[in-house]
Amino acid sequence: RWEAAIAAYLSAKQWDAAVGLIVQHAQKLLAQGRCEQVVEWINALLLAEPAQRQNAWLMYWLGVAQSYGQEDAARENIAAAHTAFAADANRDGCVTAATAMLCAMSRSWASLRDVGHWYDAAVEAYSPDMVFTDADGELMVLTGLLFGQVLSGRQFDHHEMAIERITALQDTAADINMRLMSVAAAFRSMRRLCSR
Q1: 170 secondary structure, DSSP code
Q2: 141-170 pLDDT, tens per residue?
Q3: Which of 142, 58, 160, 54 has the alpha carbon at shortest distance from 100?
Q4: What DSSP state is assigned to residue 54?
Q5: Is 127 helix (H, G, I), strand (E, B) or coil?
Q6: What is the spatial distance between Cα 102 and Cα 109, in angstroms, rounded to a whole number?
């Protein structure tokens, strides 16, 4: 099983193999509510091999896992992931990190500081012709963009397309929590536009 393999790779100091499995399976673990497990593995890895902090996807998943209760650490790690993605000119990574920050802010964070910055970063990196590898990733990006629109009070030029895609993606095998969150974002976004 891959969970035992991660533990074995960490024990054997096979960092790249451990990182590969953590990044590959983090989304599944978070969908199961196992945020602490993701944080524990990544923190153990970073303690033993600090150079892994340069891995944008590792820092992204650490930040997303921390966003369910560790606001400051989540902000720091998602921001670090965004910086690393930008340095690599990874547009998909940039929009993914920026919208993850917006989704986290919409869920429960006490402070919306920098919401405008993250909304601008997401809109700048986003393109309606982006190709997503899975429905969860596309839903997360579109959800973050719509929540960012609501939280920042700004306009999103692709609002209607985002709502159409969110509607279409409800019939996929995407994580139920992500589907529900995307519907909430679409509803809040439409409600905001109707109240103008």
Answers
A1: T
A2: 999 999 999 999 998 999 999 999 999 999
A3: 142
A4: G
A5: coil
A6: 10
Which tokens is 26 given? 């983090």
Structure tokens at 17: 């193999």
Q: Residue type at 121?
A: A
Cβ neighbours, 10 Å, residue 34: 16
Q: Which two tokens stand for residue 147?
A: 């929540």
Token readout for 38 is 């993701």
Hunting for tokens 């590959």 — which residue is that? 24
Quick one: DSSP state of residue 53? Answer: G
Per-residue pLDDT tens for 108-134? 767 788 999 999 999 999 999 999 999
Q: Kindly state the tokens that stand for 86.
A: 């930008």
DSSP state of 24: H
**Which residues lie closer than 8 Å to 109 by C-beta, 6 or more apart?**
67, 71
DSSP-based three-state secondary structure for 90: coil
Q: Which two tokens stand for residue 124?
A: 């700048």
Which two tokens mark 115?
Answer: 């919401």
The position carrying tokens 């602490």 is 36
